[in-house]
Here is the input.
Amino acid sequence: MSVPLTLLGLLEREPSHGYDLKRDYDTWFGRGKPLPYGQVYATLSRLARDGKAIAGPAEHGEGPDRKRYAITEAGIADVERWLSEPAAPEPHLQTVLFAKVVLALMLDRSADRYLDAQRAAHLRRMRELTALKERGDLMDTLLADHGLYHLEADLRWIDHTAARLDTLAQAVRQ
Amino acid sequence: MNAIIEARGVVKSFGQTPALRGACIAVGPGEIVAVMGPSGSGKSTLLHCLSGILVPDQGEAWFAGQRLDTLTETQRSEVRRDKFGFVFQSGQLVPELTAEENVALPLLLGGARRAAALAEARAWLGRLGLDGLGRRRSGELSGGQAQRVALARGMVGGPQVLFADEPTGSLDSVSGEMVMSLMTRAAREQGSTVILVTHDARVAAYADREVIVRDGTVGSLTGAAPSAGTAQSSEAAR
Here is the structure.
């Protein structure tokens, strides 16, 4: 998740004060992990320094002076480029699950038992995400679905691996 | 836990092919339990033994403190009609009947008056978002609509236990989620127990807990091994 580009994207929607920007970010993308104020203002300063955003004059009013930030043409170009680029596909060929299975087989320990425990943990998390979908709004559903499909993919790997443990054990112990 | 439905050491074979090898499971009132496992592991056979559709070769099936497996076929049919509801993979609606007649069927077979049964059926169709579709026949419904009609038929009698065997197996993911959401909400509102057979983890995630059937035995997913026995899996077990 790129915080600077996400903030720039929100600025492209409309010029905004740091406070409002943080509120919008937390509403749409925070999901229980709100952005610290310090990070918002530091990011906005960097974006202004790099010519991606421009700060308006300080506005006097109640509380501390506030500046309204607007995106520049260079900032819009960055957002455009970012939104058109695919993110790096996440699954890596080095995973904890894989390492645990191979080591368990290598050390003559129960890979089956580990896979059952992992399956149970995955299903528990899937139940939590499903409950979130049942009581949440469309944004919660969209996010929960993303998690659910990834967990489901892991589970399919777990089942597939469990079905081939004998063959894998032979290969590992050679 | 006081189980409402229970299998104790159930053994069931089809000819020479073992399907269940001492399966044990106990489910409490109002629980929603997913029965998972690979194809041919015996999970559908377990559902059939728990619901009195099949009689175990050995072992016992209990419902509400009563042995099911020692009842006559007629008595088991009455229990299925009066106490249980069923939803299968492909709706299995009666094609000659309208949606509301399909839903009313368990009530009519139980001796309810036609007008009252149809009114109850219409109420259930409304609850499941099928208002206005009651006069359609199954051929005039989408897969998701037909499966919701089947769900209404399974729930209309206020079953103590709803047995669902791959209830979303023939649906796309969005329709499947709608059916699961409606099913679990309706069951929780009515306090019905649900035995949900599925190989799909996203479907199982609607349950309170899951058990896994492997080679004809039942294990919980806590890392423990299955309860007893080992056996060859068999497609005939399904």
Q: What stands out?
A: The helical segments of chain A are 3-13, 18-30, 37-49, 73-84, 96-106, 111-135, 138-162, 165-173. Chain A touches chain B through 20 residues (CB under 8 Å). Chain A has a mean pLDDT of 90. Residues 3-84 of chain A form a domain with the Arc Repressor Mutant, subunit A fold (CATH 1.10.10.10).
